[in-house]
Amino acid sequence: MRPHSIIFCILFLNLLCIVNSNEILVVIPSCSYSHHQGPRAIVEKLAEKGHHVTFITPNTFETNSTNIRLINVNFLCKLRKFEFSKGLSIFEFLSTWINSTPIIQDKLLSCPEVQSLLNNEHFDAVLAENLGYTTLNALAEHFNSTLIGITTMETPAIMLRAIGNVIHPILHPIALIKLQSHPTFFDRVKGIYYHFIFKITLEKYYLYVSNSVIRKHFDTNLTSFELLQRVDLNIEGMSPVMDNSKPLLPNTVQIGMLHVKPPKPLPKDLQLFLDNSKNGVIYISFGSNVKSASLSPEDTHTLLDAMSRLNYDILWKFENDTIENLPKNVKIQKWFPQQDLLAHRNIKAFVMQGGLQSIEEAINREVPLVVVPFFADQVANAFKVAKLGCGVSVIKNELTSDTLFNAINEVASKLKYKNQIKTIKNRILDTPLPPVETAVWWIEYAIRNRGAEHLKYKGAKMSFVEYFLIDVIFVHILAVFLIFYSVLKCIKFCCSRKNHQKVLREESKKQK
């Protein structure tokens, strides 16, 4: 082939990439590191395929891609008022979240870099975190673009229901609570109460408060709930294997292990520690939100006592340089390359807080779990781990040195947990395409088809009366009532006329 022909082919291929590229805005305001791993993997794959991606995130990262532009909003993390290490009840978490989230959205949209985007740029699609940040959905309305919601956990019920998915308070309970596989009467009552408390709190208060933020930043008459309905495609970063099976519309896609990558070589000191351990290693980390160094003295003592009695070596993610009374078999470090660490053959068990991304990493690396949940969806995730047979759950309020010691020995010594994890891993990964490629395909599909209106459910925007045919049922009941009433009237009229005629005949006889 001649040189000019080769040059022509290269230019033609580049032109194809340019023609097929899109401007995509990704907004993930959550400060939790785990909430950004899946979206980051998607952003990198989109950029690799030639799309131009603007990523608004408080967790920035180094990248060599010229197709990725990062906007750092880490100032949002100062507005977060959670004290995760102490543990939070459902209502404590909900109250704090409702009070802080409108402020976070307002500050993000007031950021000069974001204001510049609103005033000077256009995007073909907006990929926004679908965890109640309803104001951010107005970005798609502003740019007249495709709106794609994404979550790194089970999508909250209100967001699923807004786009028409069927939500059952018992079969598909809210992500913050756990219900048994065969719930008792009291479990069902509990599920109903929680469902309606959350429904009223979110729809009647939180969404109402969010409306003022929408009016401040956008020229739109849409309400918060209508912006939830505006979602064209919802990507739920959770495999159906990990979730309660439920009926979902075609524009809601469940994809697990979005962020999991092939393991890389470990640092030399960790490699030696793991290689030289005779009985194996237990890895302990409570994630990026729950700091081991901030645990209560009682919880810290419980952990130290349990670790000192174990016959295993231990790697513990601990955010301070030192800690008193550290057992000889324990090595502390402020950060570990978790995915790479879990891939080592000598890791026998993973003690963790119940974050979905960490659970997925453990399943992918075939490491049994001991889950000690602290807040939010971690309680439900811990229940799912135990239900699937991938490990055991220890409720934080019931945490003692003995319960933790026994739980670790249970999962580390019995082969059934590792075998079950292999089964679950194979089920999750048994898909036509790898997770990230699946997500990117759906995103491109939604953009190509301008929101994929044909996948949307018409019933999503119907009123309660229309959807449940209340007016039709009422008219039919009224018709039956009127017919019944008319028949009774006719019978009564006929009977009264007959009686009247009888009376007349009797009076006539008397006169004769």
UniProtKB/TrEMBL annotation:
The keyword Aminoacyl-tRNA synthetase does not apply. Its EC number is 2.4.1.17. Gene3D superfamilies: Glycogen Phosphorylase B. It is found in: Membrane. It is a single-pass membrane protein. InterPro entries: UDP-glycosyltransferase (IPR050271), UDP_glucos_trans (IPR002213), UDP_glycos_trans_CS (IPR035595). The keyword Oxidoreductase does not apply. It is an enzyme of class 2 (transferase). Pfam families: UDPGT. It catalyses: glucuronate acceptor + UDP-alpha-D-glucuronate = acceptor beta-D-glucuronoside + UDP + H(+). PANTHER family: EG:EG0003.4 PROTEIN-RELATED, FI06409P-RELATED. This is UDP-glucuronosyltransferase.
